[in-house]
């Protein structure tokens, strides 16, 4: 734990990390809040699902672009403008009752205007900490962000059930504005300007480390998307148990990130961690007793945060060794955000199809999504074993 104590003593680390996590907290609420509110307005899960899909598409498309703009226009100007636009889009959704095209357009607008806090902050981290501590800072951030996914859905559903379906959207807008203001008013943000990216848009994708990190990140987040669907299917008639199981998996991720995320994960160890996650997920599909099932969920989540932190550190290190790396870093992390967003959507979709396909063949509830989640983790585990991963890690 000493490595984290040393980190929090560094000027600006606590404020930057805490403020950007608060500003990003609404991301844990948005999809579910939009789903519930559009469902309330239209009475249709199909329309509400499409609205959430538009939100995801907008975020996936915009993030590499807006993160690159932060280097061109400045961090404060870019993030402030997008946060304001996002809050306006959320407000419009709460006070109007548009038809289906309007709802889909608003979902897209909300996604397009999500500020690129994650890529910008991860581009800033090498400036806040010495090189040997950057990996630990990535681990601290990646672990702490699990609180977003543990608490966000709970807050969204509780507010929707006790107040109104519009209220979580208003809370998301308010929290985003407060957290972003806290972040942007930090002296350390004001003193730093990201180097302008002079490479052609998307050029960073040609880097081997970047492509490998994208592939592994996609598989990891897709596995979690399929796993969430598996848990909903397993506990369809059991009230809050699905949420509890998801929270336990996220808690495992938080613990794993704090425990080993600061260490340099060599490719063999990274692959072993991911294989352990796959084995736990597969075993959970066959486990019916609740205590061992929750224990397996904890293990299934254990490697999530440290694996992502290791991939972020890999990309950061690869960019640091290049003359154009500093300018490309924000866009690179924007692409990683896109890989995660697309991975989550694909994982949920594939898990749904797998559930339909396997549901009639297997007596185990959620067997199809569990299988899909396992396969996605195995795909992620194969990435560190590729010969190019060693070369990228040593570059």
UniProtKB/TrEMBL annotation:
Fetch the PROSITE patterns from UniProt. Answer: MFS
Membrane-traversing stretches:
45-66, 78-96, 102-125, 166-185, 205-227, 239-261, 268-287, 293-315, 335-358, 370-389
Q: Where is the Major facilitator superfamily (MFS) profile domain?
A: 174-395
Q: What is the topology of this protein in the membrane according to its UniProt annotation?
A: Multi-pass membrane protein
Q: Taxonomically, which superkingdom?
A: Bacteria
What Pfam families does the record tag this protein with?
MFS_1
Keyword line: Membrane, Transmembrane, Transmembrane helix
**InterPro entries registered for this protein in UniProt:** MFS, MFS_dom, MFS_trans_sf
Where does it primarily localize?
membrane
Q: Where in the cell is it found?
A: Cell membrane
* Gene3D superfamilies in UniProt: MFS general substrate transporter like domains
Q: What is this protein called?
A: MFS transporter
What species was this sequence derived from? Leifsonia williamsii
Q: What is the lineage of its organism?
A: Bacteria, Bacillati, Actinomycetota, Actinomycetes, Micrococcales
